[in-house]
Amino acid sequence: MNAYISTDLNMVKALDPDRHALALKMEAFLNKGGTIEVLQGPSFVPPPVRHEPPPRAKVVIDTTPKPPTAAAVRQRTKRQQERAERSAERAKERYALVEHTRKLAESMTYAQAMEATGKSRKVLTAIALEGGFSFQTAAQIGYQNLRAHQADDAQDAKDCERIKAFLEVGLSRTQAMNQMGIRFARFNRLLVKGNIDYPKRKAGPHPALFAKQQ
User: Fold this and answer.
1) Residue 133: exposed, middle, or buried by beta-carbon count in 10 A (0-12, 13-18, 19+)?
2) pLDDT band with cut points at 50, 70 and 90 for residue 60
């Protein structure tokens, strides 16, 4: 580390008292028999010369697309041909499936076609949309047999007698309906038809409320 040496004369003169005091101390030290050894300061050793490797020649890569070889063209053509053959085969199979399903739809419903082909309704619907046809409409047997309910007077008379028996033993309306296995509408109709006075059970007393203890 290089020491800083000031060139300002005033600063140099300001250090004279310190230099004078240091000189007196050195003289007293020598008079007492002391010796002053001057140590050799650090020597500057220059770093070794670095030998840089010679610059390598820049490799220029040719990015110009090269025409495909005859083998590559034949391979690509073969793959395209195989892909076209597979596509044609799939189209042929799909056409056969649509025509087969069309024949089934002439005499079958969706449920029957599902059972015959093992395919889901969603798949059959997609095929029908693709082929432009529809399946036969399923007969709604349940809706055709709907008719107004006809009361059975003999059965109603038996049920009225049961209701009267339940009233005598003290069952509530809900308990009587549960024992007979009927709904409220039929139970109420039987009460009106049999002129039965089945009183409703009143609610019990409300629980007493007590103030919370603090």
Assistant:
1) middle
2) confident
